[in-house]
Every structure is written in structure tokens, then in C-alpha cells.
């Protein structure tokens, strides 16, 4: 009976999220372009969108994961060098990986972690930095327990992110899942992580690696480049911003003055120089664009456009093999997609469709079969036998 009630409750949450999103877009008073306080109804709707769209129908109590095998360094791996200063606890020759961690995408995160460890020659030299929502401290404790149980030898640290504070800067986007405050944590890594972490590989939770992450981490960031990512210059860059943005010369000229034409890049896979980021105070610059978005709508796609506004045309190049993105389809229907031409080192299910959801529904896309071997979720039968 309790299980039936949980399913019904979860269904109501998903339905409420959908209905409130429709109300937001159909209510003309919800878009306040003058910087004044929006009507209370908008804040009420937006509050529930943030809460319910970031809530999964499953919890860590309902999910049980298998223990992953331990992976060992090859003989050629270097010994980690710890900084002599006792206040610096991070080895300077480790591969540092940052990911957000929450209940909704935990299954994807576990698969991503396993894929990183399985395909690198030096898994013991990889240090994970997980960012969780500070408003869900109880969930963070369960996430920590889940990681420790499935990856007993994993070298990781968890950092609480003030999601309540950033939620005040977030504007609604074309898909409610994009509005979760934790999606914006990648903009705050320079302050969340210890100062001794100089370079980080940021990864989304809906991907798997099939190549050694150390190759990606070694991407050179020379000159003024603060981050590196695969660029897609054939994409229609103007589509990522509204006509209001392009019709305002003071805004559009920001992109026109770049050293090379700005191109789209996906923020789900990035190599970031955190020292340069801190020196350039790029988090503040991103927040300024988010504040402008609250006053006049200049984009529609969540946390991506502020990154494009700050970094497009200024990043270091990475081979496309390191982000075969879009496998989750578009942001509306999540239809099946094929791989881009060329070699593959990382498969990324960005978009609405996630492989675990499609596999559970019995309607997988062909490429979802490549994700399945990394799925650590125990089946109901296996959990009952344990």
C-alpha cells in the first residue's frame, strides 16, 4: 500500500510541475521587463517549478547500486605529489574531475564515474569533486553513503552549493529541468573548490567516457583561454539568443568584438583553468548576464547562454570526439539521434531523453545500449536476493 501511495505521489509531483510550467508561459504578467518585483503569482509558480522540476520520482532510498570493481594504476602511472603546505590537500599532478550530484541524476552519475575509472590508465590518480545542493543536506548524506558503498576506494570530496541563493538569479527556460539551481553550479567551481585545484575537468551526469580522461585533462590552455571545449561552428549561434538581444547594439557588439567569431559549445564537457577564472572574476560576469536576463529576456536555454556570452570565441579547441553530444534528442521530444561522424571518446545524452529512463520504459534508442553496461543500479530481483 505504501509503495502504491509513493507512486501516486510521484505522479502528482510530475503533473504539478507540468501544469505550473504551462501557467508560467501562458501568463503575460510573468515576464517583467522593467526590473520591478514580479507579481506574487509568478513567484509562487516559479518557486514550485524549481522545487518540483528538480525532484525525481525516485530517491536514494528506493535506488540501490552494486559495488563497482576496484581499478588500479598501471605501472607507468606517476605517484601523486602532495603540496608541502598542509593547508593544500590536493595533489598537483592528479586529474581533478568536477560533477554535480543529486538524486534525480544519481543513476547517470554512477555510470559516468564508473566509465571514467574503467577507461583511464591511472584511476587512483583521479580525484572527484562533487557539488550538491546545500538546501538538501539529508540527501547529501545519502549520496555520500551511496558513493562510499559502490566505490569504496574512490578519492572524492563533496561540496555544498548555495542553491537557494542562485535560484533568485534564474529565469525560466524552455524546459523546466534546465532551471534547477544545481545546473548553475559549474559557474561557481572556482569558489567551491579549494584554491589548490588549478585545473578541472567538468562533466555532466548524462554521459560516459570510452577513452582515458587524462588525455582530455591534458588539453593545453595557453594564452588567455580560460576553458577548453569542443566547438560547433556550424550550429546557428544566433538562435541561442532572442531578437531583443540581437536588436540591441550595446549587447550584440559584445560578441562582435571577440578575437574570432563566436561558436556554440556544450558546457557539459569542459576543461577549466580555475586560477585564471578566479583572477578574471568570471563568475561575477556570468551573474551580471543572469541579472540582465531577469530584466529583459535575452535568451531561452538555461545556464548555457551566459557561458556563451562570456567565453564564446575565446576558448581553446578540443576534438569533437570528446563530446558526442545530443544523444538525448532535443529539449522537447527527446527523439533518438545518431552519432556525429568521426571517432568517439565520450558519449553525451544531452537533451530531454536519458538512457536509463528510455531503457526502463522499454523504448530505448539504439545508442542507449552503449550506456547500459555502465549502469550500476541493482534490479529488483537482485536487491531482494542480497
TrEMBL record:
Compartments (UniProt record): Endomembrane system
Transmembrane parts of this sequence: 7-25, 37-57
Assigned EC number: 2.4.1.-
Keywords (A to Z) from UniProt: Glycoprotein, Glycosyltransferase, Membrane, Signal-anchor, Transferase, Transmembrane, Transmembrane helix
Pathway: Glycan metabolism; pectin biosynthesis
InterPro entries: Glyco_trans_8, Glycosyltrans_8_dom-fam, Nucleotide-diphossugar_trans
GO CC entries: Golgi apparatus
Keyword Amino-acid biosynthesis in annotation: no
Topological relation to the membrane, as annotated: Single-pass type II membrane protein
Principal subcellular localization: membrane
Pfam family, one: Glyco_transf_8
GO molecular function ontology, one term from the record: glycosyltransferase activity
Enzyme class label: transferase
Family: Belongs to the glycosyltransferase 8 family.
UniProt protein name: Hexosyltransferase
Native organism: Glycine max (Soybean)
